[in-house]
């Protein structure tokens, strides 16, 4: 399928998804055919999507990037979520050779020293495993929301991802955090206990801190960097521009 066709399909989907509820959005995407993969970080948004996939037995693969530096609470939540929804969350891990090469060049925790080193670490522990997770997929589902950060304020429901040549679906794009919390409470969705300790956005343990009152949701990610648009690279082009809308 050509890029032009995928762009047109994404635009059509973006319009269709806007009028549906979450179950309808995911059901529509699941019925498109081809391989659909949902990548979860086990954050509260992603747990809502996983609950819908599991409860409705949708033919959507659920995968996570097991970076090797996740919080123990996140690792425990993977097992709990699999058990509650009777699903398999496929773990994609970094290659040891890549980790060794990174440590040789930057040091194991060299990501604190420069943006270049941090991006390189994310590349090894996230981007390369993501490429394996999405290999052969035609649909990539994420938990991106417009309210997560200024950098994500224009997140569409569907977009063409030119880096991976697939359609990216963001079914929670218009959900705010209060709606998400209400869904979790009403449906007994298991969530990471770190959320209650001031961690609205949870990534690798060395790179995540609790936020302070009044800070944006993602202020605790890579907090030592000054760029307010900092990202790990999963949802931006290689050159650092936001993904095509």
TrEMBL record:
Give the pathway: Sulfur metabolism; hydrogen sulfide biosynthesis; sulfite from sulfate
Question: InterPro entries this protein is in?
Answer: APS_reductase, PAPS/APS_Rdtase, PAPS_reduct_dom, Rossmann-like_a/b/a_fold
GO CC terms: cytoplasm
Q: What class of enzyme is it?
A: oxidoreductase
Q: Which residues does the entry assign to the active site, renumbered to this chain? A: 232 (nucleophile)
A single Gene Ontology biological process assigned to it is: hydrogen sulfide biosynthetic process
**What would you give as a GO molecular function for this chain, any one?**
metal ion binding
Q: Where in the cell is it found?
A: Cytoplasm
Q: Does the keyword Metal-binding apply?
A: yes
The entry's protein name is Adenosine 5'-phosphosulfate reductase
- Name the UniProt key words of this record, in alphabetical order: Cytoplasm, Iron, Iron-sulfur, Metal-binding, Oxidoreductase
Q: Which residues bind [4Fe-4S] cluster?
A: 121-122, 204, 207
Its source organism is: Rhizobium hainanense
Q: Which CDD domains match?
A: PAPS_reductase
């Amino acid at each position: 399928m050509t890029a032009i066709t995928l762009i047109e399909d994404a635009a059509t989907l973006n319009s269709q998804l806007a009028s549906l509820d979450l179950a309808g959005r995911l059901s529509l995407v699941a019925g498109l055919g081809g391989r659909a993969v949902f990548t979860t970080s086990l954050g509260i948004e992603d747990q809502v999507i996983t609950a819908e996939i599991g409860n409705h037995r949708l033919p959507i693969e659920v995968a996570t990037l097991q970076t090797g530096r996740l919080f123990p609470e996140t690792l425990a939540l993977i097992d709990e979520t699999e058990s509650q929804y009777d699903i398999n969350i496929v773990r994609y891990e970094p290659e040891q050779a890549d980790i060794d090469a990174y440590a040789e060049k930057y040091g194991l925790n060299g990501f604190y020293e420069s943006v270049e080193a941090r991006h390189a670490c994310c590349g090894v522990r996230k981007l390369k495993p993501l490429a394996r997770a999405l290999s052969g997929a035609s649909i990539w589902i994420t938990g991106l929301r417009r309210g997560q950060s200024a950098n994500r304020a224009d997140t569409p429901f569907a977009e063409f991802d030119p880096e991976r040549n697939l359609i990216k679906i963001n079914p929670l794009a218009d959900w705010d955090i209060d709606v998400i919390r209400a869904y979790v409470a009403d449906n007994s969705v298991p969530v990471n206990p770190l959320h209650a300790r001031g961690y609205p956005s949870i990534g690798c343990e060395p790179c995540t801190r609790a936020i302070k009152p009044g800070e944006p949701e993602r202020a605790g990610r890579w907090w030592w960097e000054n760029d307010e648009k900092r990202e790990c690279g999963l949802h931006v082009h290689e050159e650092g521009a936001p993904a095509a809308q």
